[in-house]
Amino acid sequence: MTRSFLYKALFFFYLVSPFLLSAGFYTLAMAPLAAITAWRIPSKKLLSFILPLCLIGLISTHGLMSGYTSYAAFKDFWYLLNPLLALYVGCFFYLKLQSQHFYYVFILAALFLALKHLSYFVINPEVLALGGKDIRELAGRGILVVPFALALLFWGCRGRLCNFRFSAVASIAFILMASVFLSFSRSGWLLLTLALFVYFEWYKKPVLIVISGLMLINIGVLFTGGFETANPIVNKFLNPMSELVQYESWNFYDINNNWRGYENFLTREVMANAGFINQLLGFGAGYVLPLDVTITLAGEAHDEIPVLHSAYSYLFLKTGAVGVLLYLLFMARMLLLSIRLPGLEARSISVIAAIIFVTSFAVTGLYNKVQAIPFLLFLGCILGMFWQEEETRTWQE
User: Fold this and answer.
1) What tens digit of pLDDT does each residue of 346-361 get?
2) d(CA 172, CA 110)
C-alpha cells in the first residue's frame, strides 16, 4: 500500500465524514492536520487570505465579557473556527496529492454521498410514490457537493481532469443527477447552473447571455409574484424568496411557513434598538436571539436560538456591521484572486465564492458545519495549486 493511496483515502474520509460523524468529532479530526499544515505552507499568503475570517473571530470575543453562558459562547467560536480549520486541512492535501488525484478523489467522494442518499430509496421504495415535499423531508434535502461534482465531471470528462471511460462517466453522471433530482433542493439546482456557467464559460456566449437574462427576469417576477399551487414543493420552487419575506406583524402560521424571514425580522428589530457599539461590533459570541414565542425546532421547545439560517443575520448579531463587511470582503477577495490567473483553479474559486454568497442567505453559508466543509477543503487545496501556478508563471516571466 503506497503512501499516495493512504493520502487519497484520508482525503476521501475528510470529504465524506461531515455527513457521517457528529460535527464535534469532525472538528477534532481536523485540528491535528490543521496544526501540522500551519508550519508547512506559504503562511503569509494564507494568513493574508483568511485575515477577514480571523478578524471576525477576534471581534466576537467581546461576548466573553457579557455574561453569556459558556456553552453558547463555545458554540459560536466552534462555528467561527470550522472554516479556518478546513482551509488549513485542504492545504495539507495540496502538499500531499497531485492535482489530478485531488479532483479524482473529490468526484468519488461526491459519488459515495450520492449513493448514500439514493440508498434510502432502495431500502424504502414506497417513498418515491410520495410528493416532493415528503421525499425531501424523509430522504434528505440534498448534499451540495453532489451538483458541484457533477458540473466538474461534465467539464473534465474529456480528459481534462480524470481519464474515466465513457461508460464510467455516464454511470457516475446518472447517479449524481438522480441524487440532485430527488433532493428537490433549490440550492442544488442553482449551484449546478452556476458551476456549469463558469466552468464552460457560458458567459462568453451571446445566446446564453440572452437566455440567462430572460431567466433572471423570470426569476425576478417569481420573487415578487407570489404564485401558489396545490403542491408545496412546486410552491417552494416557484417562490424562492417566500421564506425571506418580511411582515410587520407575525402569527404562528406566518412563523412556521416563513421561519427564515422571522429570524431576519427579529434580527432587524434587535439591531434597530441596539446601541451604536452593538450595531458596529454586535453582541459578541454567546449571544442568543430571543424568539418572543416558544416554538418546537427539531423536536425541542425553544424560546431563543444561538444560530440563524442566514449567515449575514448571524454575523450581524454576533459581530455587527463590521463582521458582515469582513465576510463580504472575504468573498470579494476570492473573486479578485480568481481573475488574476486563468485556468481550472481560478474557475473553481469563482464558483465557490458564488456558492458561499448565495447559501449565506439560507443555510449559514461559510459557517454551515456540514455542507460547507467539503467546499472549504476543496478551496484550501486549489488555493495551494493556484499560488504554485502563479509563482511558476512569475518565475518564467
Assistant:
1) 888 888 998 898 888 8
2) 10
